[in-house]
Amino acid sequence: MQIKKVGVVGCGLMGHGIVQVAAAQGGFDVVAFEADQGALDKGIARVEKSLAKLAQKSVEKGKMDADKAEAWAAGARARITPSTDKADLADCDLVVEAIVENLDVKKSLFAELGATCKPETILASNTSSFPIAEMGEASGRPERMVGLHFFNPVQLMKLVEVVRTDKTDEDVFAAARGFGESCGKVPVGCKDTPGFVVNRLLVPYMVQALEMLDRGDASKEDIDAAMQFGCGHPMGPITLTDYVGLDTTLFILEGWCERYPNEPAFAVPGILRRHVEAGKLGRKSGEGFFKWDGDKRS
Ligand code: 3HC
Q1: Are 116 and 231 contained in the same domain?
Q2: What's the rounded Cα separation, in Å, for the pair 243 and 170?
Q3: pLDDT tens readout for residues 137-154
């Protein structure tokens, strides 16, 4: 099963990164789909900015000369076809969904993709927390459904979780794993369980950090510094929550609390809900627990 053409539905925080690594590292032809032209333009602009940054870094590190780096970025950009027409996804070998973290919206998208894509198309979701099996059933082709869970920022984080359900075909799982590898990632296989591997461990840790902050046990700066310098984490849990998005973290936790009410590790910290209600969504909105100017935190 050979993947040549890839569709990505959603060109936001995660989707634009998936578009980029598929085109730049993977060398795939990529259809970048967004229903809204404004959102599509914004996503493509982010890809261009990131490609330019990575090209510049390669020159600085002496990995490529300026002409080669420019050609690399231009080549990747040329493999991307921006689209607002779902019909453009029909002949893709793989379609990766990276839209809002809402199961009903995702299920209706997969029903549509199952009806419009060619029969061989593999369907994948970048969901952080929802059951892949339910999306597979909605698509009408559960044996061709996998999870491909990338990490933020997709361009820099080396992992992709490849999630199989009880119905996923062995060949489909292998092809999805191969796709992850082609994109320059380390793929890990896992079953269709809440949070897969990383979020099952990471999100309860973030919850504990937020509860600690709410109780006033330590300041947000000190909680972060503790984990950075005590455990060697690249960023502390409060900054990481800003980075992931407070709304996304809340969606994940609310979904889990509803589905698994007896799991003590899944709880919604009051401080998280209050911040989201106040419109403080993290880096993407300019303020979460910290204030942000682009990548810079203050
Ligand atoms: N494209 C290109 N360049 C980028 C970039 C992007 N998307 N994002 C950042 N960069 C650049 C920066 O601009 C910076 O350039 P500079 O050196 O010229 O200023 C360079 O990359 C390195 O950035 P930093 O200086 O901030 O260096 P760090 O060493 O701190 O690396 C990081 C940044 C990789 C984000 C690191 O802090 C890190 O690993 N943080 C943890 C992130 C993490 O845990 N992510 C997973 C979240 S969980 C998740 O995604 C799952 C979801 O389902 C919830």
Answers
A1: no
A2: 35
A3: 999 999 999 999 999 999
Q: For residue 224, give every residue at least 6 positions away whose Cβ sits within 8 Å of its Cβ, in sequence order, or none.
A: 235, 236, 237, 238, 239
Please give the torsion angle defined by the CA atoms of residues 165, 88, 248 and 176, in that order, rounded to the nearest 10 degrees.
Answer: 30
- Tell me what pLDDT residue 294 has: 84
Ligand 1, residue 149: give the atom nearest the CA: 53
Ligand 1-lining residues (CB < 6 angstroms): 50, 53-54, 128, 151-153, 155-157, 199, 202, 234-235, 240, 244, 295
Residue 277 lies in a domain: yes
Does 143 share its domain with 276? no
Nearest CA to ligand 1 atom 25: 295
Distance 117 CA to ligand 1 centre (A): 34
Last residue of a domain, one of 143, 159, 191: 191
| Active site (annotated) includes residue 128 | yes
Q: Which domain holds residue 227?
A: 200-289
Ligand 1 centroid – CA 156 distance (Å): 6
What CATH number does residue 88 fall under?
A: 3.40.50.720
Domain termination site, one of 172, 191, 210: 191
The model's pTM is: 0.94
Are 268 and 208 members of one domain?
yes
The structure tokens 């936790």 sit at 253
Beta-sheet pairing, 94-97 with 292-293:
unpaired
In-domain check, residue 297: no
